Amino acid sequence: MTVPCVRAPREEGEATRQELADADLIDDAYELTVDEGELYIPVTDPDAVPADLEVVSRPVDERETQTTPADVLGFEPSYERLGRAALLDEDDDERAREIADAIVASDLPLETVLNKASKVKGETRVRDWDLLVGESTEVVHREYGCEFALDLAAVYFSPRLATERNRVAEQVVEDERALDMFAGVGPFVIPFAKRGADCVGVDVNETAIEYLRENARRNGVADRVTAIRADVTEIDDEYANWADRLVMNLPHSADAFLETTVELAGDDCTIHYYDIQHEDDPFGPGERAIREAAEPEYDVSVETERIVRSYAPHELNVCLDVRLER
């Protein structure tokens, strides 16, 4: 079967395999292959592979000993993987239980199966889960060399944004000052700190802040991370004119915090502004809101307009990388 693979020189193979494993991108259903001094590593999502690695399509063998959930069920179930957990989104309880049993019967290295029991709700954007397999809703997720502990029932976390978070993290330089206004368990803050930035993460969710502190310790960056449990509008005085980089990943209502953003921004600051807008004009509303809040105090320039993913019919989750220069 032809599948997407990362091709690497054999002498770089183990380092490349480890990098892909850290990002949870290796497709365990297929064998790794060596051919003419090149290692081919099957991957689950070629779009999420770091830009410095080469992706090719190549015939590879399926792992003969691998029993998949599809083998047990007779159809391909839909689920996300987060650490050693499988996340289902099934309305039918019997079907959810059938899929959970098939995951347990398979050879996948999964210990927990959860089914979504509500939509994201409330100020902290958490959801209810039905625990079908396992002992708790707490998981440990690895992403681009970082490790995150989190409780899915108590904090918000989306594994689908891994590629986007890595894109932003690769822009960070040593000794810059970065502030995540809605930090959660630290998926932006931790990789920023690993690149040498002095980081502040703010969140109203006390549990998320506790995990952020734990994740800073797990990843060896506790000395570069300050975690603050607060509404970000409450920290204006302490961090006024402080940030070289601001992350605003609250796409339904980030525009309501732009006055605070201007207070926190330093003389030369990059903002990563996340928004959800209609496909006819996905970037215009965000740019106009930023200009209204920042001009004429700052010169405003939009450096990147990026569609992160489709959110709903005719609606897009987008990011604007915007530079403010006083």
From TrEMBL:
One of its GO terms (cellular component) is cytoplasm. Transmembrane segments: none annotated. Residues 79-326 form the SAM-dependent methyltransferase TRM5/TYW2-type domain. The keyword S-adenosyl-L-methionine applies. GO terms for molecular function: tRNA methyltransferase activity. It comes from the Archaea. GO terms for biological process: tRNA N1-guanine methylation. Keywords: Cytoplasm, Methyltransferase, S-adenosyl-L-methionine, Transferase, tRNA processing. This is SAM-dependent methyltransferase TRM5/TYW2-type domain-containing protein.
